[in-house]
């Protein structure tokens, strides 16, 4: 009887032993698969893998421990990691792995591994020997990493600012800039005559034209000369046949200050009924400011310096000029500008005495788009687009011509005599809208061409609208 019991128990033990063998489980799984018992087959194979992993995890742990005894920590860590991967609840491997993470400065992994051990074995006495310090070192490492990250961000910020500074369009140091341009005028007359060429009687060609030269041979110093027959707008009378302007400036950092002389020459019968040769010279001041991406340029030639007064005789005229330009440069490809320009003319007959006034005020906004040669980095093309609101002023038979502000038509067309009578802008004539588009192209390293097309839509009370086409060339050295 006892022999039978012992035999049965032995058979059960042997069967259980073989059932726990990974290879036997694998064979059983394969056999079940051949019999198309797939679910049972997969279950057997899964048990084989788990059993194999548990047994091999112990071998890998022993291998890691031997590497650790040899001092080869770099080989011990991967062995322990693989042991844990194969048996995630093998606590001895987790203990050694967490400790080695701690010793090698991998504090994040050390803390995570130590916390995992305490979840599996809350009373574990090994990890608490080093886990508190691992927490401390982790916090120190995190603080250090945050400081380094902040420093890197600041460095990147500085680098970006330096790059932006490099990309900012720099004022090219030039010795000479010279341009010449001509303008054709075509009017569309509202009384039925349609399109006609509009003449502009000046000295030389019967059209507006300008020559401009800017030289800067010495550091900080600059001189500019502008001469020609200027264009003031479609509705301005023929008041100025020739203009010359000579200016000198000194640049100091982001500022410049300068002085100039403006000459205007009348050669027309539009004012006094017969051709008169009248000349006027004015002194002016120039000021400029450049800060970051913004630039301001101001030119002022007031009528009062020098001014025709009571001691004048015959027929004379005074002129004044004001220009304010604000430019904002977004980058080397795009810029924006706003400009206010004033031109005013006062014609005197001192024998009466009486005065005639006419003036034009331009307020413009525009954008400039640039393209560059990818190889040389030199500007290749520039496109300009602008909108101008143009106001015309005029007043005749001013009977107090020697008032300092011209009996009314002083700066900004203000009539000083009628200011208190509710009619301060009595000389306002009409308003026009001007649309202009232009392009500038470098055909050589130092030579460029430019052209622009303008449309002036005048008030319907006036006699015509006007189309202008400007063509010019320049040299820059």
Model description:
The structure is a single chain. A 14-stranded antiparallel barrel has the order 1-3-4-5-6-7-8-9-10-11-12-13-14-15. A hairpin with a 2-residue loop joins β7 (276-291) and β8. It has seven helices and 15 strands. The protein has helices spanning 2-19, 22-34, 38-70, 73-86, 91-103, 107-120, 131-167, and strands at 176-189, 194-197, 209-215, 221-229, 242-252, 255-268, 276-291, 294-301, 315-331, 334-349, 354-372, 379-398, 428-442, 447-457, 464-476. α2 (22-34) packs antiparallel against α3 (38-70), α4 (73-86) packs antiparallel against α5 (91-103) and α5 (91-103) packs antiparallel against α6. With 477 residues, the protein is an alpha+beta fold. The protein has two domains: 2-142, Tetratricopeptide repeat domain (Serine Threonine Protein Phosphatase 5, Tetratricopeptide repeat), CATH 1.25.40.10; 172-476, Lipocalin (Beta Barrel). The chain starts with a helix and ends with a strand. 23% of the residues are buried.
Number of helices: 7
Write the H/E string, N to C. HHHHHHHEEEEEEEEEEEEEEE
* Secondary structure category: alpha+beta
The main pleated sheet reads as: 14 strands, antiparallel, barrel
Taking the alpha carbons of the first and last residues, their distance comes to 122 Å
Fraction in beta strands: 35-45%
The fold-level CATH name of the largest domain is: Lipocalin
Our count of domains comes out at 2
Low-confidence stretches: 1-19
What percentage of residues falls in helices of 4 or more residues? 25-40%
**Radius of gyration using CA atoms only:** 46 Å
What integer is the average pLDDT?
83
């Amino acid at each position: 009887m006892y022999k039978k019991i012992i035999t049965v128990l032995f058979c059960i033990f042997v069967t259980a032993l073989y059932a726990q063998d990974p290879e036997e489980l694998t064979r059983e799984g394969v056999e079940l698969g051949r019999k198309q018992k797939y679910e049972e087959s997969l279950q057997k194979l899964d048990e084989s893998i788990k059993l194999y992993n548990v047994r091999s995890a112990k071998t890998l742990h022993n291998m890691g421990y031997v590497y650790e005894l040899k001092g080869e920590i770099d080989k011990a860590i991967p062995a322990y990691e693989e042991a844990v991967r194969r048996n995630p609840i093998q606590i001895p491997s987790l203990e050694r792995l967490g400790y080695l993470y701690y010793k090698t400065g991998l504090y994040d992994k050390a803390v995570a591994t130590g916390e995992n051990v305490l979840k599996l074995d809350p009373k574990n006495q090994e990890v608490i020997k080093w886990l508190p310090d691992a927490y401390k070192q982790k916090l120190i490492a995190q603080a250090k990493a945050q400081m380094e990250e902040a420093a890197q961000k600041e460095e990147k910020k500085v680098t970006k600012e330096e790059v932006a500074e490099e990309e900012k369009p720099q004022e090219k140091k030039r010795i000479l800039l010279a341009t010449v341009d001509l303008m054709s005028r075509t009017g569309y007359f509202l009384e039925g005559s349609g399109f006609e060429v509009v003449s502009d009687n000046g000295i030389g060609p019967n059209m507006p034209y300008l020559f401009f030269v800017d030289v800067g041979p010495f550091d900080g110093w600059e001189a500019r000369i502008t001469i020609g027959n200027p264009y003031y707008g479609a509705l301005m009378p023929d008041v100025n046949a020739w203009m010359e302007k000579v200016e000198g400036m000194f640049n100091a950092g982001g500022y410049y200050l300068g002085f100039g002389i403006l000459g205007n020459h009348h050669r027309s019968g539009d004012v006094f009924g017969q051709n008169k040769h009248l000349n006027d010279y004015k002194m002016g001041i120039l000021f400029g400011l450049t800060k970051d991406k913004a630039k301001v340029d101001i030119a002022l030639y007031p009528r009062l310096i020098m001014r025709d007064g009571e001691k004048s005789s015959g027929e004379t005229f005074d002129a004044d000029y004001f220009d304010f330009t604000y430019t904002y440069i977004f980058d080397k490809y795009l810029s924006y500008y706003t400009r206010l320009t004033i031109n005013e003319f006062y014609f005197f007959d001192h024998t009466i005495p009486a005065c005639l006034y006419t003036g034009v005020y331009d307020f413009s906004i525009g954008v400039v788009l640039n393209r560059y040669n990818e190889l040389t980095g030199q500007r290749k093309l520039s496109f300009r687009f602008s909108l101008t609101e143009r106001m015309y002023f005029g007043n005749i038979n001013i009977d107090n011509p020697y008032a300092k502000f011209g009996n009314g038509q002083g700066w900004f067309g203000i009539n000083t005599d009628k200011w208190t009578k509710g009619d301060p802008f009595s000389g306002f004539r009409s308003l026009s809208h001007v649309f202009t588009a232009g392009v500038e192209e470098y055909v050589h390293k130092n030579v460029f061409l430019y052209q622009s097309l303008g449309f002036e839509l005048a008030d319907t009370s006036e006699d015509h609208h006007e189309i202008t086409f400007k063509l010019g060339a320049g040299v820059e050295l």
